[in-house]
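User: I'm putting together notes for a lab meeting next week and I want to include a structural view of one of the chains we've been expressing. I don't have a solved structure, so I'd like a prediction I can at least talk through. The sequence is below, exactly as it appears in our construct file.
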Amino acid sequence: MKKIILILFIGLSSNTFAQEDGNFFSNPHFSIHGGLSFISVKDGWGAFLIEGKSNVSENLLLKMSFGYTNMTKTQPYKVKSYSERNINNILAYEAVTYEVSKIEYQVIPISIGLQYNINNSLFKPYTFLELGYNLIDPKSYKANYLTVSEFDSYGELPLEHRYVDEIPNGSYKIAIGVGFNYPFSLVFGLDVWFLT
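Assistant: Thanks for the context. Below is the predicted structure for the 196-residue chain, given as structure tokens.
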């Protein structure tokens, strides 16, 4: 999950597409974006983002955002691990094998960054840099769970079964992206961007 967020937002954004006057922190505005999520894991679906921007200079904007997306990784893999069993205060270790059939991720990305507008015409291409953190709530689905053998102590476990398959519940991100927006009115417009 090194690249948890790789999103192509293609959608209508509810935004104030007023012309920026270029003064420092002038014309703050907010937007709500909806789009499609395509990531390094399969079966990505809709995503939304709430974003705020304000001018730093004529073409440079400070931006902050948070959002939500749901993704599913459907690349099964096998795990050799262990489990602890306590019966009558006697602790035993079981060497186990199982298959992770899929992992579902609910992700809330939070970020701050800078956006540079290449021009201030009606059709406005831009590039941006973001720093942020992804809050991740993962859920794994296991199949073919099998207890291989049982041991009295952790030290007796075979080395290949001392592994714990931990799924991250957060990740930092540095994202670079490009995009463009085109206003349909003072409220609605098309905003398309791609980030890695």
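A couple of points you could mention at the meeting. Residues 8-73+103-138+168-195 form one domain. Residues 1-20 have pLDDT under 50 and may be disordered.

User: Perfect, that's what I needed.
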